[in-house]
Amino acid sequence: MSSNVQFEDKPVSLTALLDREIQEEMAELNQRLQTDQFPGFSVETDDADVKLTKQVGDATVTVRFTVSSSLSEWRTGEAQEDKQNPEQPEASYSLISLPDFQVQISRRDRTLEVSCYFEQPEHDEETGDVYPTEPIFDIDELVIYNGEPRESEFAVSAEYFREELQEGLIQFLADHGIDDEFVKNLVSYSTTYEKKQYIGLMRRLREFVAK
């Protein structure tokens, strides 16, 4: 016997709500299937986890991230006038996946591991509105180790690095393929992959509650 919820004064089964959710999410996913590629990198997935690998010269570049709990509301366009309330134009927002990610650059037995994150969008101080910008990543911390990493390895936060050093590290990552184009592809791929995972979860949930 399926569970029921009260919706607009009418009993609606949870399975019916899930059917609707899956259908609507599938309709959006079909518009984004072309983003389900990642140029230049081999891609391995394990449920919510994603691993990207690429050879750059004598270095192996590995990027890891998970799409679990990675969604953020992002402003994607300029505000449009609301005909019903012209004094308060509506901005265009969408949910995109902005996962923290780790970059490992390995040469022989030594590895530089850099943890990265996406900056929060800037807000208008007076209105609180979010400025429409492209997602920008920054470095959180880094560590260097031989062989396999140990918990006792010294890691340093990049928050207090001098600006020139931060810029130098960003350029070093760009030299190894982690540049603006890569970040754009990562967000696009991650957003599509997160939606696929979400639809799969909703289908499993429907099977569970329908029994």
Describe this structure in words.
By secondary structure, the protein is an alpha+beta fold. The chain has a domain at 38-80 and 88-190: Mitochondrial Matrix Protein, Chain A. It contains 3 helices and 11 strands; from the N terminus they run ββαβββββββββαα. The strands form 3 sheets. The chain has a 7-stranded antiparallel sheet, covered by helices on one side. A two-stranded antiparallel sheet has the order 1-2. β4 (49-56) and β5 (59-66) form a beta hairpin. α1 packs antiparallel against α3 (180-210). 15% of the residues are buried.
What is the secondary structure topology, with strand pairs?
Elements: E1 4-7, E2 10-13, H1 14-30, E3 42-46, E4 49-56, E5 59-66, E6 71-80, E7 90-97, E8 101-107, E9 110-118, E10 137-146, E11 156-157, H2 163-175, H3 180-210
Antiparallel strand pairs: 1-2, 3-4, 4-5, 5-8, 6-7, 8-9, 9-10, 10-11
The CATH class label of the domain at 38-80 and 88-190 is Alpha Beta
Please state the CA-atom Rg, rounded to the nearest Å. 21 Å
Order of SSEs: EEHEEEEEEEEEHH
For this structure, the CATH topology of the domain at 38-80 and 88-190 is Mitochondrial Matrix Protein, Chain A
Question: What gross morphology would you assign?
Answer: globular
Average pLDDT, rounded to a whole number, is: 85
Coarse structural class: alpha+beta
Features of the shown structure:
single chain; 211 residues; alpha+beta; 7-stranded antiparallel sheet
Provide a short characterization of the protein structure.
The chain is α+β, with helices and mostly antiparallel strands and 211 residues long. The chain has 3 helices and 11 strands; from the N terminus they run ββαβββββββββαα. The chain has a 7-stranded antiparallel β-sheet with strand order 3-4-5-8-9-10-11, covered by helices on one side. Strands 1-2 form a two-stranded antiparallel ribbon. The protein has a two-stranded antiparallel ribbon with strand order 6-7.
